Amino acid sequence: MAGLEGALVGAGNPLLDISAVVTKELLDKYGLELGNQILAEDKHLPLYTELEKECAVEYIAGGATQNSIRVAQWMLQVPGATTYFGCVGKDHYADELTKVAAKDGVKALYMVDEAVPTGTCAACIVGGERSLVANLAAANNYKAEHLLKPENWACVEKARVAYSAGFFITVSPDAMMAMAKHCCENDKTYCLNLSAPFICEVPPFKKTLTDLMPYVDYLFGNENEARAFAKSEGWETEDVEEIALRIARFGKASGVRPRTVVITQGADPTVVALQGKLLKFPVTRVPDDKLVDTNGAGDAFVGGFLSQLVCGKDVAECVRAGSFAAGVIVQRGGCTFPDKPYGFAWN
């Protein structure tokens, strides 16, 4: 595991998850759907206070990209193997996030906006499934200038793999494009997640996604996001395998490597499209009685996958690690994990 310091860099929206088991009535009150992720509107803002007052809440370091980076760091067990960029406020929520990152071994380089509170995400859980409502707050204010500071950009130059969740498209397309182009020009690997249907459905976000796509070496998503992408392209298919193959064929800015598209489908097989071929990997099902919280399962899959990608492993090993990590996370509350990835055998 030598030479892995700074190997993986991520940029995204750091949020403190406010996680709670809630009633169906609460979901209905705020118009929330299980399995969905949305950005908070004014009507959702009382939700955060209501959760803290009425429910037994747990505070967990969150934000999709940060989750994946923390999981990759946990899998690698090499201090400082990962670096993370995002914007926080100057408050106790930010202090919590900084503490968690340090404990996990992630090098967190937060931009601090003193005028705005740290972003939060309400994770409303019913029967192990969740509905996420993100109030980006400070996370919404990340600026590419922070990433481009020489001392910060040096971390991007050091990395061999860069990753952002699609959610970051709503915040700093410039930072994403800078990392994507750097990877393309320096034969590095750029990875992106579709993250949520609205990224494909809202025209300005879809345009950024389209602009980034030529630079994307690995694209992640789940079956709902894949179908939303297909719909946004005007494709008349809901077949996840066909959609993955078609996305993989999109043009690339660099001819060095083909695009790999990885679509998870919950307990159904993970679909991977690569070089015109389709691979399917079965998922080891977690028994219902052990399922605690699906929040972060997709992020954990990506984190496990990236932990092997930075080590140069093939796609089968990457998927195996991703499935392992996701299987651990769904048996715990939020995106949390034991001290070490016990039970994972490195090949």
Walk me through the structure.
- The protein is of the alpha/beta class.
- Helices cover 38% and strands 23% of the residues.
- It has helices spanning 24-29, 45-54, 64-76, 92-104, 144-148, 150-158, 173-185, 197-201, 203-212, 223-232, 240-248, 297-309, 315-329, and strands at residues 8-11, 15-21, 37-39, 58-62, 82-88, 107-112, 120-126, 129-135, 161-165, 189-193, 218-222, 260-265, 268-274, 277-281.
- Strands 6-5-1-9-10-11-12-13-14 form a nine-stranded mixed sheet, with helices on both faces. Strands 3-8-7-2-4 form a five-stranded mixed sheet.
- Helix 12 (297-309) packs antiparallel against helix 13 (315-329).
- It starts with 7 loop residues before the first strand and ends in an 18-residue tail after the last helix.
- The mean pLDDT is 94.
Quickly count the helices.
13
Number of strands: 14
> Percentage of helical residues?
25-40%
Mean pLDDT: 94
Taking all Cα atoms into account, the compactness measure Rg is 19 Å
Morphology:
globular
Fraction of residues in β-strands: 15-25%
Strands side by side in the biggest sheet: 6-5-1-9-10-11-12-13-14
Q: Which structural class should the secondary elements be placed in?
A: alpha/beta
User: What oligomeric state is this?
Assistant: single chain
Between the first and last Cα atoms, what is the distance in angstroms? 12 Å
Main pleated-sheet profile: 9 strands, mixed
- Series of secondary-structure elements, N-terminal to C-terminal: EEHEHEHEHEEEHHEHEHHEHHEEEHH
**Could you list the spans in which at least 5 consecutive residues all have pLDDT below 50?**
none
Pathway: Purine metabolism; AMP biosynthesis via salvage pathway; AMP from adenosine: step 1/1
Active site: 299 (proton acceptor)
Keywords: ATP-binding, Kinase, Magnesium, Nucleotide-binding, Purine salvage, Transferase
Family: Belongs to the carbohydrate kinase PfkB family.
